[in-house]
Design a protein that fits this description.
Layout: H1 3-17, H2 20-29, H3 41-55, H4 60-71, H5 76-88, H6 98-108, H7 111-128, H8 133-139, H9 145-153, H10 156-161, H11 167-175, H12 181-186, H13 190-212, H14 216-226, H15 232-238
């Protein structure tokens, strides 16, 4: 399989199924600066499904080449293919691939790519090499709120399953975000500040909610001890599955 051949076929598919009205809405909803064709995820997924048999045969060097190729293209849907290929070959990844993953994370600039990138991938890497947890402690002090959000959500699948992960590290990361002075120091526009606060607060609550399914007592204890310091949104989300806190 050749990148350019797949790209040509995909472009034809995108143009065939494009929806200009939806594209405008998607671009606005995602605050995206990319080109959008306006395809629903199910339509995009249908193309991926047809290609998966061939894509699955790619060797590691080819995987990296394909990811870089499609990530460098101008549309949201083309970059979706890069993330799909990355996830398809997740078991081949290790610590040496973290610079690539971090590059994609920093250039994602939104939840749509990040939720398909960080949440499914990071647990697989963290299981292979505990030293990768150091990335989370680095990301949580970054100036970019999307990077901090990635640090908070990187263990979500561990928490959902109730197996693996480092809950104490997450608690430390979450507590470090209760003081939001860093947002005012790094963002000037009111909308940017509002979005930074919302997505960080929401991420803390989301991770706690996932954890509460398997370890409710641990989450209850954290919420009781930190209720006066955390945002109402984080508390509400984190306690959503708990009867009482």
């Amino acid at each position: 399989m050749i990148c350019s051949a797949l790209h040509k076929e995909y472009l034809s598919y995108l143009k065939q199924h494009k929806d200009p009205v939806r594209a405008i809405k998607d671009k606005a909803y995602l605050y995206s600066d990319l080109k959008h064709y306006g395809l629903p995820s199910a339509i995009i997924g249908a193309f991926f499904k047809v290609q998966d048999k061939q894509l699955a045969q790619l060797k590691k060097p080819e995987v990296v080449k394909f990811i870089k190729y499609f990530w460098g293209l101008p549309s949201f849907e083309e970059r979706c293919l890069a993330v799909h290929i990355l996830n398809l070959h997740a078991e081949k990844l290790n610590k040496t691939d973290m610079p690539l993953i971090e590059k994609l994370m920093r250039e994602s600039k939104g939840w749509s790519f990040l939720d398909s990138l960080i949440i499914p991938l990071m647990p697989k890497l963290l299981v292979k090499d505990r030293s990768i947890y150091k990335y989370l402690t680095k990301w949580i002090v970054d100036k970019d709120f999307w990077v901090r959000r990635s640090a908070l959500l990187a263990q979500n699948l561990f928490f959902r399953k109730g197996i693996g992960g480092d809950a104490e590290l997450f608690f430390d990361l979450a507590r470090s975000q209760f003081d939001e002075k860093w947002i005012d120091a790094n963002y000037t526009g009111s909308l940017s500040k509002k979005r930074a606060r919302f997505f960080i607060r929401k991420a803390i609550g989301w991770a706690l909610r996932e954890m509460s399914g398997k370890n409710p007592n641990v989450v209850q204890k954290f919420l009781r001890e930190n209720k006066g310091m955390m945002s109402g949104l984080s508390y509400k989300e984190g306690s959503a599955k708990l009867d009482k806190v």
